[in-house]
Write a structure and sequence with these properties.
The structure is a single chain. Helix 12 packs antiparallel against helix 13 and helix 14 crosses helix 20. It is globular, with a radius of gyration of 30 Å. It contains 29 helices and ten strands. Helices cover 51% and strands 7% of the residues. A six-stranded antiparallel sheet has the order 2-3-4-5-1-6, sandwiched between helices. A two-stranded antiparallel sheet has the order 7-10. The chain has six domains: 126 residues, Serine Threonine Protein Phosphatase 5, Tetratricopeptide repeat; 52 residues; 86 residues, Tetratricopeptide repeat domain (Serine Threonine Protein Phosphatase 5, Tetratricopeptide repeat), CATH 1.25.40.10; 125 residues; 70 residues, no CATH class; 170 residues, Serine Threonine Protein Phosphatase 5, Tetratricopeptide repeat (Alpha Horseshoe), CATH 1.25.40. By secondary structure, the protein is of the alpha+beta class. This is SEC-C motif protein.
């Protein structure tokens, strides 16, 4: 097949083949592509190497060779190929993208971002799919490194490019962040350029820079913003432009620094300054200003067996299960794992037949690991991550033991405030269900949270605790920023009263509610502002948009309130389209299992009355029955799905996937065998089954439904005969 001399050369230079240096060797490309399509990657590489020996300036070979090497994970060869490519064509976007790829593989994400931004700047003829492929990989690398705003920028390149079909990695990077309740909602969308300078001379140059920014000419835009910042260091719009550039460049330290500067500008609104400071704290690498010091303590032990007996005999100590000890030890394959592990509680727990009442529930002060004697070191006791709040009581207990003597070795570390302020309950088996244990954990944690926040020393307050700064107006901005940080976590809205108590304790005012006046307003609100939306002010369409955004970003109370509002108003001709989504959203955002089951019954009745499929409600009910420990109800729901939808392959496929995830069946449809009787549940984070009382009824707290030995499965599942 002859090559069209007037088509664009695949080397990435943007030139037609007739006018490119590749024209003398381009006839070899078809042969190489045939090898690749046939899976002959090594042969294709060999042929490319031969062509490069004959035609050293065949840039098309370097372009294809780089993609092959990246796919084959030949990192060193990719680096050499990219450097050669850049020497040949320094401004070639494919060469710069290869450089970004190998830098990203080496973990040099910021340098990789710079190379990719140069590639974007040089892509005047359109962005090649290879550039978008590497942008997707880079977005995932940034997400794994905790640089979430930069990750979102590069993912956006792939997700918004017309005709690009390989957006799976970029979507994964975005969705993993969006769905997490443990990630601050301030880190789920990129700041925009809303504030513009008012001075005409500054505004003109600002507009030039912002146009470049919107065209993904990030490096050129940054140069213009920096020039403006030198002559206008307090100009808010210019600093926000530099912030967006720093996000694109993956420079988390600079992002935090610019936001800190913005928080210091007194002409900016006080609430915005507090938000800027809060975001600065969250973006700083490792978040040092909102982490608190804690120490690990190590003693050499002469008689380990005696110490172990002392710990086992104490009513304030529980022994850790073996699998938890392995994780707590954090040892690699070459290190000896801990011999045993214990948790020190702040009080005794005598009755293990039932869960304790919240006001007498024991809390963990520290975890202790015992290591046996090794060739090169003595037996030892290690206390892990002891913070100031628990330090005195923990040290008093362990130094009183006869097996512990001398001064310990101390290693310093820090842990995030959200971890330090959350209490841990001991890992032990007591009577009850997992749902009851989770409820107890939540009640106790909510009771202790505010007091622990106020008692935790932070660098944000110069090493003081927040409680020590309550009467000092110099720390008012810092206290407000701290409140905004904590408010930005969705997990804090499980009990909104805790946030009210926190704001009152910190002497911080709540932000005002937001009334909705248009659809565009809902689209442009920052994610952390969704919690302030007054759903009563919104009409049908903005409510549906809000429901979608709240679901995408896992804003639980917003999802619940919006769904409840949609079900309460007249939806007119859109009822059949919107109402099922509203029901499922309300059910998914409801933590009360009995309330969720009531809603499911109502939703199923409505769906049947309006000729709408009730399969989503039944599948959801399966999960709810599991979470509430209703084994009989679970079986009944499964049978109802089979009865009503046995001819619907899609629904039955979803049921099979659900049963596999729940551990009821194997992927091939065969039943999983289970122990005849479930053991008592574990309190804390230990995955363990619930008490069955010998009834033989499978509950979700058991690993799998119990069966009588020798009996087959009584449950028909897709794939069973």
């Amino acid at each position: 097949m002859s090559v069209d001399q007037y088509s664009v050369c695949p080397c990435g230079s943007g030139k037609k083949i007739k006018f490119c240096k590749c024209k003398d060797s381009i006839h070899e490309m078809e042969r190489v592509l045939k090898m690749m399509s046939g899976g002959q990657m090594v042969a294709a590489l060999d042929r490319l190497n031969q062509v490069l020996e004959e035609h050293p300036d065949a840039a098309w070979c370097l372009a294809i060779r780089g993609r092959l090497l990246l796919e084959l994970k030949e990192d060193e060869a990719l680096a050499e190929n990219a450097e050669r490519f850049i020497r040949l064509q320094p401004s070639n976007p494919l060469a710069l993208t290869q450089q970004a790829a190998y830098r990203g593989v080496r973990g040099e994400t910021q340098a990789a971002a710079d190379s990719l931004l140069q590639a974007l700047a040089e892509s005047s003829a359109g962005v090649d799919t290879f550039v978008l492929d590497v942008a997707s990989v880079l977005s995932l690398s940034f997400a794994q490194a905790g640089n979430l705003l930069s990750s979102r920028c590069f993912a956006g390149l792939a997700l918004t490019a017309q005709g690009y079909e390989n957006e799976r990695l970029a979507m994964m990077a975005v969705e993993q962040v969006n769905r997490s309740r443990e990630i601050s909602n301030m880190l789920k969308d990129v700041p925009t350029l809303e504030v513009k300078p008012t001075a005409p001379a500054v505004r003109e140059r600002y507009d030039e820079a912002s146009v470049l920014l919107r065209a993904n000419q990030i490096l050129l835009a940054e140069s213009k913003f920096e020039s403006l910042a030198r002559s206008n260091p307090q100009e808010e719009g210019v600093l926000r432009g530099l912030l967006v550039c720093a996000i694109w460049r993956g420079d988390a330290k600079r992002q935090s620094s610019i936001l800190r500067k913005l928080s210091d500008i007194e002409t900016i609104d006080a609430d915005q300054r507090a938000r800027d400071l809060a975001l600065s704290l969250l973006l700083a690498p490792d978040q040092p200003e909102i982490c608190t010091p804690c120490n690990n303590y190590t003693w050499d032990i002469e008689d380990l067996a005696m110490l172990e007996q002392e710990l086992m005999a104490s009513s304030h100590v529980v022994q850790l299960p073996a699998d938890v000890i392995r994780m707590a030890g954090n040892t690699d394959e070459n290190e000896v794992p801990p011999r045993s592990g214990f948790q020190l509680m702040d009080r005794e727990l005598n009755d293990t037949e039932k869960l304790p009442e919240p006001d007498v529930a024991p809390l963990v002060l520290t975890n202790a690991l015992l290591f046996g004697k090794q060739t090169d070191r003595a037996a030892r006791l290690e206390l892990l991550s002891v913070c100031g709040i628990e330090l005195d009581e923990a040290m008093k207990f362990f130094t009183s033991l006869s097996g512990v003597s001398g001064e310990p070795k101390v290693s310093e570390e820090t842990i995030p405030l959200m971890s330090a302020a959350s209490v841990n309950m001991p890992i032990m088996r007591v009577g009850g269900t997992q749902a009851e244990a989770r409820k107890l954990q939540t009640i106790v944690n909510n009771r202790e949270f505010v007091g622990r926040v106020l008692a935790t020393p932070l660098p944000l307050f110069g090493g003081k605790t927040a409680g020590e700064t309550l009467d000092d107006p110099a720390y008012a901005l810092q206290r407000t920023a701290l409140a905004r940080v904590i408010e930005s976590y969705d997990v804090m809205y499980d009990d909104p009263a805790v946030l009210d108590q926190l704001r009152t304790a910190l002497k911080v005012s709540a932000l005002p509610p937001i009334d909705i006046e248009s659809d565009d307003q809902v689209y442009t609100l920052p994610v952390d502002a969704l919690y302030r939306v007054n759903v009563e002010s919104a009409s049908k369409q903005p409510l549906f948009i809000l429901l979608d955004r709240a679901r995408n970003f896992r804003c639980t109370p917003v999802l619940r309130a919006t769904a409840e509002r949609l079900l309460a108003i007249d939806l007119g001709e859109d009822e059949v389209r919107i109402k099922p989504h509203a029901y499922i959203a309300w059910i998914d955002s409801t933590s009360d299992e009995s309330k969720a089951l009531e809603l499911l019954a109502e939703a199923k009745a409505w769906a049947k009355a309006n000729s709408v499929s009730h399969a989503p409600m039944l599948l959801n009910e399966c999960l709810r029955r599991v979470q509430s420990g209703d084994g009989e109800g679970f079986q009944t729901t499964v049978q109802e799905i089979i009865r009503d939808f046995s001819n619907d392959a899609n629904v039955m496929g979803q049921l099979q996937q659900l049963l596999v995830e729940l551990g009821v069946i194997n992927p091939d449809g065969s039943p999983r065998h289970a122990p005849q009787q479930a053991a008592p549940m574990g309190l804390g984070n230990e995955p363990s089954p619930a008490a069955s009382g010998g009834s033989g009824l499978w509950t979700p707290d058991s690993p799998t439904p119990p069966q009588t030995p020798g009996e087959g499965s009584k449950l028909w599942v897709p794939g069973a005969e």
